[in-house]
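quick one before i forget lol
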Amino acid sequence: MASDPDTSRRSWDREELPTGEAKVEAVRAMFDSIAPRYDLVNRIMTFRLDTRWRRHAVRRLGLAPNSRVLDLASGTGDLCIDLQRAHLRPLSMDLSFGMLAADRSRAPRTQADILRLPVANHAVDGVTCGFALRNLLDLPTFFAELSRVVRPGGRVALLDVGVPRNRLIRWGNSIYFGRIVPRIGGLLSDPAAYRYLPKSVAYLPEPEVLVRWLSEAGFTDVQHRGLSGGITQLLTATRI
């Protein structure tokens, strides 16, 4: 009997974005799949701007040397490397074992659901997270976890893709991110994953909502910045 084409397709290769626990499993499996060539595709599709965005996030974190920083959804460890260069002490956590296996930072690493961090209250000085907010099941729960584990006065810096305010930039970005990026990803890695990633922007709420949720979770000085014309966004905040 022929297999049902809908059930044989990968869970992240559907017209409708997955929700609930199906989203969690799809994200885990997808990142396991693309881990081996993840860095290569990122560098090509962002023209290496991703390296600039991460360095900017670390600068905006603004922590003293030797501060302990959790890098969540750490992937292959790019942010951990930038944290180490800034003389900070990163701990790498990711849901995807494939990503952790490809980590190049040599930072201590743990496979974990970052909505339920295996970390004591107020145990770290800061948190970074790069391009993963849209992949999380529940952002208010995530922000509450950040508030729990970061000490008072500690800092967070959270990167993700953005939607440019300028209509011309937004149009060009939608063409590039929606049509060109999937072709690049398809040539170099998993085509299904790079069809999913542009669509996953729809998971993100408006910047004003992100700022409000962080404030309600126990953070002050919450700031939202658009980078590179707004194609990327950075949230920074201080734990009360």
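fyi The CA atoms of residues 39 and 76 lie 8 Å apart.
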